[in-house]
Design a protein that fits this description.
The protein is of the alpha+beta class. The chain has helices at about 5, 60-75, 85-100, 125-135, 140-145, 170-175, 185-195, 215-220, 235-250, 260-270, 280-290, 295, 335-345, 345-355, 370-375, 385-390, 400-405, 410-420, 425-440, and strands spanning about 20, 25-30, 45-55, 80-85, 105-110, 155-160, 165, 275-280, 300-305, 320-325, 360. It is globular, with a radius of gyration of 21 Å.
Length: about 450
């Protein structure tokens, strides 16, 4: 476990929510008995508009809208939900924050909230309540949305876990009975898959979610964008070793990955063009729900594994974090908080996670105990993504600089340049250093 995970993550005096096993094998939990009830009294004639990402898993959208309907039926508050792709939410959220007009609630990614913290409503009361009731927030959520250690600027929603998705038959045909656990054996697998005509493929374009594998690559070799004092240190011997490894990886990839965005590896995998990639559980989800017989036929052959351990000797996981921001300009702050409270309560959150088929890893300890994570063993690897993840701005403090550097795809671009040979590893690292220093100004 990394340094974040060794920290005590329970919020205040909250204990882990109790769990019991019922006859069906599903896990159920009781909220902490000492958690005080909380409800916000919405403003008269309140109406809400929500902007959220929409990607890959239909069950997520369907169950979310069922919960929205339940909220409206209970409160009489009309809620409009606009669904956009990940890449479109970020600029729209920035425009809303800067102009002071737009959606009341925005579901964003990574540490985008740190781009405009003064434009966001303080939701400390809501987060404190949820943390106490549901076993505590995982450390990475606090790093993202509680940067000062005191005030919450958003409500954590979870993360789209990024695991290695592979065709088991192809891995065995390449000579591996089990999936590699270290980077040396992993490289041997990549080369063997390429030789067998069943190559891997990883996104090297400006992919919001699937480009985060490059964080794992750098961290696994000991590199990092900034140190604990927020000093930019990406141009380092450790980074150069990671970039040399990236060149070897890229030589095994299917052509075209330099322009891949988030949907591309899903399509390539389901079309049997590649046999290994990094992704959320959405590829497996598609094989269970597709009407295409060729896609459905892949289901039993798909398995998931965590990223291999690199020279640093510890896991270095990076996942796409989801936040829920209430914009300070909203006319209905109490209604907005009540909406988020309602959506995060077990009666709504459990069915939503279940309908999404494990696509969203939970941010609260209690929700790691629900049945979806064990009802299908292939879901289980995604359960602890938030628990185990490093924040994107590792190892520094999150804030405007980390959010800006992440949104500018500095790490992804550096890896793409070095891997493809567009620049030498040293040139790519030097360019990344200069780009990052524009955000992390001394």
């Amino acid at each position: 476990m990394n340094s974040f995970n060794r920290r005590k993550f329970l919020e205040g005096s909250a204990g882990v929510a109790a769990a019991a096993t019922v006859g069906s094998g599903a896990a159920v939990f009781a909220p902490a008995v000492h958690a005080q009830a909380l409800a916000f009294k919405p403003e008269k004639d309140a109406k809400l508009r929500v902007l959220r990402w929409s990607r890959f898993v239909q069950g997520d959208i369907d169950a979310y809208m069922v919960n929205v309907k339940k909220f409206t039926e209970k409160t009489g508050i009309e809620v409009r939900v606009d669904n956009e792709g990940w890449e479109d939410v970020r600029p729209k959220a920035a425009v809303a924050a800067n102009t002071g007009a737009g959606p009341d609630i925005i579901l964003g990614t990574n540490d985008d909230a740190n781009l405009y913290p003064d434009k966001l409503l303080d939701v400390t009361d809501l987060c404190t309540y949820l943390g106490k009731k549901y076993g505590g927030w995982y450390p990475a959520t606090e790093a993202y949305l509680r940067p000062d250690g005191k005030k919450w600027i958003g409500v954590p929603l979870g993360a789209a876990g990024a695991m290695l998705v592979y065709r088991q038959s192809h891995v065995k045909a390449a000579g591996f009975d089990t999936f590699p656990k270290d980077t040396t054996a992993f490289m041997a697998l990549l080369k063997a898959l390429k030789e067998k005509g069943t190559p891997p493929g990883f996104a090297l374009g400006n992919a919001t979610g699937d480009g985060l594998w490059t964080n794992w690559l750098i961290w696994s070799h000991g590199g990092k964008l900034v140190d604990k004092d927020n000093k930019v240190v990406i141009d380092s011997p450790e980074t150069l070793k990671a970039l040399e490894y990236a060149k070897e990886m890229y030589a095994t990839f299917i052509p075209g990955t330099l322009s891949w965005l988030d949907p591309n590896n899903n399509k390539a995998f389901l079309d049997s063009q590649i046999s290994l990639t990094n992704n959320g559980i959405s590829i497996y989800y598609a094989t269970k729900n597709s009407t295409d017989e060729k896609v459905r036929a892949l289901r039993d052959d798909i398995f998931h594994a965590p990223y291999p351990i690199g020279p640093v000797g510890v896991p270095t996981e990076s996942h796409l974090f989801f936040n829920q921001m209430v914009m300070k300009y909203t006319k209905y702050p109490l209604a907005a908080k009540e909406f988020l409270r309602f959506m995060m309560e077990q009666e709504q959150f459990d069915p939503w996670l279940t309908a999404a088929g494990g696509y969203i890893a939970p941010p609260l300890d209690a929700y790691g105990k629900i049945a979806v994570w064990t009802s299908d063993p292939k879901h289980t690897p995604y359960r602890d993504a938030v628990k185990n993840m490093r924040p994107a701005g590792y190892a520094g403090r999150l804030g405007y600089a980390s959010a800006g550097a992440g949104a500018d795809f500095i790490i992804v671009n550096m890896v793409a340049e070095a891997a493809s040979g567009a620049k030498t590893p040293k040139e790519a690292a030097e360019r990344a250093q200069k780009r990052a220093e524009r955000y992390y100004k001394v």
